[in-house]
Amino acid sequence: MLIVAFKPGHDGAVAAIGDRRLLYSLESEKDSRPRYSPILPTTVLDIAERLDAVPDVVALGGWSDLASSRIAYTGAGYEGIQDPIVATRRFFGKEVKFFSSTHERSHIYMALGMAPRDDESPLRTVLVWEGDVGAFYVVDANQRIVRKVPVMTGPGARYSFLFGLADPTFPITGGKPRLNDAGKLMALAAFGDAADANPDITHVVERILKQDSMYPAPKAEYRDSVLYNAGVESPECKTAAALLTERLFETFAEVAREELPEGSPLYISGGCGLNCDWNSLWAQLGHFSSVFVAPCTNDSGSALGTAIDALATFTGDPHIDWNVYSGLEFVTDTQPDPIRWRSRTLDNDELSVALAAGRVVAWVQGRWEIGPRALCNRSLLAEPFGAATKDRLNEIKQREDYRPIAPVCRVEDLGKVFHEDFEDPYMLYFRRVRESSGVHAVTHVDGSARVQTVRASGNPQMHRLLSSFAAQRGLGVLCNTSLNFNGEGFINRMSDLVLYCESRGIQDMVVGDTWYQRADG
User: CA dist 246 to 189, 192, 215, 284, Å?
Assistant: First the structure.
């Protein structure tokens, strides 16, 4: 069975599953298009070119514009866990099954289908927390949703709103929580301490938690608050960020303890699943037997979730085989100018010497990563020891200096660099950095780091480079941040890569097994 699914609205994407294997998950923002782009004709053409047959099932994710004064529904709509729409339609001359289920269900089934198969647990718990939905779902051994436990509407929107409240550039009326503000607030929360919150800050946070709706963002109602246009880097905003982070988790954790089966596995889905603080807290809670978060837990995985929902509807089983590197291959649409760039065969030992000397390397391998995190197929790499490296990378990426830089680390070195040595190949949890490791560029202000762990079997090219770097500097760890223009998705073609490197003073590019060096470098 070949299933192709489309995700409307922001974070547009198309996904294809064939015989229970993920073939492609293509987000329209990637290939240097604006972040959160709706689905584009080029994305549809990209997947059509690569499939060998017309699909058996065409699936459309449900959607509605919650911020609009007149809500128009696409497919099955945004909210609810009601049965999907199933019909027969014609698609490019072939009679196919048409399927549509709600956006809410796409998150549930994305988690169920991507999580490791578990035939032992009679029940499993799914948490969907994102811009609008905030609820738990109990799922039985037959993959049926048997109970929904609502907790709070719009947890992600409430979190993002705090950033907009403090940001003088955010509109007073008519705005809506911005999709990129949650990640910035997560970074700022590390600078604050919830225990430092005074009654004024506490009052604002509790008001945000109790607000009826965040659409449109009710900034004008908070003119009297201490956080109104206070500045996102103000002490008040950082303290409030820490407190809101704590209070949102406490609210959901309390419901989990009281309402959900103890000892069941927890599968997390929705944009809040990108918050490494919260993921770490769920793992430490002790109520669940295990915690799983997919690398595309936000809306970037919603098309895939709809495809999995269709698979479960027609077969009774949502589980798929998948690989995080299921995007498109890199496009060599031009060759670097040989007057400005020399090419040579990649030598990991020599590249490690260049990295140790302070060079920043644009690193491209294979197919792009699904989800928003750069997992060493579309990455900027640099040495991790000098604190100035973080500032240099943020300058190259043209983003705020309070944003942390993540490390990538060989599993063999985890215990030497971090206090916790669990594996995290998708960069979804925080852990504490050992001061003795000296990796200052990747240590956030609170002593934490969000690390991608690498096994030789998971990403062999990166593991080889890390092993060479370990031979140079004693630890197989590097800075790893996404290779993209500010406000755009991953770079995926040579013309954009050359433009990026030449405009930002990057003198080394690696594409596959070819190393390009600036001729005047």
Answer: 10, 11, 23, 14
Exposed e or buried b per residue across 145-173, where buried means at least 16 C-beta atoms within 10 angstroms of its C-beta:
eeeebebbbbbbbbbbbbbbbbbeebeee
Closest listed residue to residue 374, CA positions, set 262, 282, 451: 451
Which pLDDT score is estimated for 465? Answer: 98
| pLDDT given at position 416 | 98
Do 201 and 240 touch, CB atoms closer than 8 A? yes
> How many other C-beta atoms are found inside a 10 Å radius of the C-beta of residue 174?
10
Q: Give 205-240 as a DSSP string.
A: HHHHHH-S--SS--GGGGTTSTTTT--TTSHHHHHH
- Do the beta carbons of residue 442 and residue 479 sit within 8 Å? yes
pLDDT (mean) for 136-156: 97
Write the DSSP assignment of 265-301 as a string of letters.
-EEEESGGGG-HHHHHHHHHHSSSS-EEE-TTTTGGG
DSSP string, 58-103: EEEE-EE-TTSSS--EETT-SS--PPPEEEEEEETTEEEEEEEE-H
Return d(Cα 51, Cα 304) in angstroms, integer: 16
Say whether pLDDT at 119 is over 70: yes
Mean pLDDT, residues 233-240 taken together: 98
The per-residue pLDDT for 262 is 97
Q: What is the pLDDT of residue 521?
A: 64
In the chain, what is the straight-line distance between the N-terminal and C-terminal CA atoms, in Å?
A: 52
pLDDT at 519 over 80: yes
Q: Give the H/E segment covering residue 144.
A: none
**3-state SS class at 128:** strand
Q: At 73, is the pLDDT very low, low, confident or very high (cuts 50, 70, 90)?
A: confident
Q: How far is CA 243 from CA 65, 68, 275, 291, 377, in A?
A: 30, 30, 15, 24, 35
| Residue that the structure tokens 């009826």 belong to | 212
Residue 300 pLDDT level (bands cut at 50, 70, 90)? very high
CA 521 to chain centre: 34
